Amino acid sequence: MLNLSVSQRLDLKGRAHALKPIIIIGNAGLTSSVLNEIERTLKSHDLLKVRVMNDDREARATMLNEICETLNAGPVQHIGKILVIYRPLAVPIAKAPPKRRSGKALTKKQLGSRT
């Protein structure tokens, strides 16, 4: 499980405030398919909100711990039926800037007009 400092958790809580829950855990509970979906989502998003449709607070806390231990993520927040989970993304490999056919690199102005 990933350990987060207090300042990191506060920063992540602020970032997570605007997010909507992407994954919903239903009455079946935390199944392997739900864990696989959370894993796939954490590969593209570092911060994730999960809604749990269970009224038992201890069961939700157990689910949060199980998710974090299984997927090597950090628990950010458990408030009500919402769980916030964080796992840093892998560092992407920087691509070389596109080049012109003549071999000269594009200028900043030319790069900006491509978007």
Task: Note the main attributes of this structure.
115 residues; alpha+beta; Translation Initiation Factor IF3; four-stranded mixed beta sheet; 4 strands; 17% strand; elongated
How does this structure look, described?
The chain is α+β, with helices and mostly antiparallel strands. The protein has a single domain, classed as 2-Layer Sandwich (Translation Initiation Factor IF3), CATH 3.30.110. The chain is built from four helices and four strands; from the N terminus they run αβαβαββα. The protein has helices at 6-16, 32-44, 57-71, 108-112, and strands at 23-25, 47-52, 74-79, 82-86. A four-stranded mixed β-sheet has the order 1-2-4-3, sandwiched between helices. Strand 1 (23-25), helix 2 and strand 2 (47-52) form a beta-alpha-beta unit. The termini are far apart.
How would you state the average pLDDT, rounded?
89
Order of helices and strands: HEHEHEEH
The structure class reads alpha+beta
Termini separation: 39 Å
Query: Per CATH, what is the topology?
Result: Translation Initiation Factor IF3
How much helix, percentage-wise, in residues? 25-40%
Q: Which spans have pLDDT < 50 for at least 5 consecutive residues?
A: none
Largest sheet: 4 strands, mixed
For CATH, the homologous superfamily is named as: YhbY-like
CATH class: Alpha Beta
Our Rg estimate from Cα atoms comes to 19 Å
How many helices in DSSP terms? Answer: 4
Going across the biggest sheet, name each strand in turn. 1-2-4-3
Share of residues in strands: 15-25%
Number of domains: 1
The oligomeric status of these chains comes to single chain
Number of strands: 4
CATH architecture: 2-Layer Sandwich
Q: Tell me, what's the shape? A: elongated
